[in-house]
Each structure stands twice: as C-alpha cells, then as structure tokens.
C-alpha cells in the first residue's frame, strides 16, 4: 500500500483505515491507472443503504475486511454477486495510517 505523506519502509506492518466511499471496484487489475493501491478482493455481501442510490459492498481482502460504497448503477453494471472476485482500488491520499 502507498500512503500519502508517510514514508514507510517496505515490508513494515501497518494498520490503516479506509473509508468505504474511497474504495472503487474493477473487474480486472488495471495497472494503467493513477490509482496505485489495488487489492484482489472477494465479494462477501451486498447491503442496501439508507439512500436509494447506493449499496455497501462487504469485501474480503486477503483475510482483512474492506467496505466499498458504490452506486446501484455500478453494482448492476459490474453484475456484482457474493463470491465474485474483483479488484479494489484505493487512492493513496485516502489511506489514513
């Protein structure tokens, strides 16, 4: 993971917080992106939110929980379902170490 404004030694264990709104989802690993933090994830659950426009996607990122808040339109376009393998993308400025 790349963390903005926090030079860290490679391999150092780190605990960090990521807001669900700062996580985007992709069907494939897109190395030609400005978003450098990309993690393979598995969809655990799709949860309705209190707004008609969004859903919360519960993800497993290598044994670590991760949430993504996306639009229902994006959910439908990606045809998301539990068990599906995806890539989560997190901008480095969104990672709070």
Summarize the structure.
By secondary structure, the chain is mainly β. It contains 1 helix and 5 strands; from the N terminus they run ββββαβ.
Topology diagram in text:
Elements: E1 23-26, E2 37-48, E3 54-61, E4 64-71, H1 72-78, E5 85-90
Antiparallel strand pairs: 1-5, 2-3, 2-5, 3-4
End-to-end C-alpha gap: 10 Å
CATH class: Mainly Beta
Strand content: 35-45%
The largest sheet has its strands arranged as 1-5-2-3-4
> What form results from the Cα inertia axes?
globular
The CATH homologous superfamily is named RNA polymerase II/Efflux pump adaptor protein, barrel-sandwich hybrid domain
- Radius of gyration computed on alpha carbons: 14 Å
Order of helices and strands: EEEEHE
Number of helices: 1
CATH topology-level fold name:
OB fold (Dihydrolipoamide Acetyltransferase, E2P)
Kindly report the oligomeric state of this protein: single chain
- From the helix content, strand content and strand pairing, which structural class follows? mainly beta
CATH architecture annotation name: Beta Barrel
> Biggest sheet, in brief?
5 strands, antiparallel
- Number of DSSP E strands: 5
Fraction of helical residues: under 10%
Name the average pLDDT. 87
Low-confidence stretches: none
Overall number of structural domains = 1
Keywords: Molybdenum
Organism: Pseudomonas aeruginosa
GO biological process, one term: molybdate ion transport
Pfam family, one: TOBE
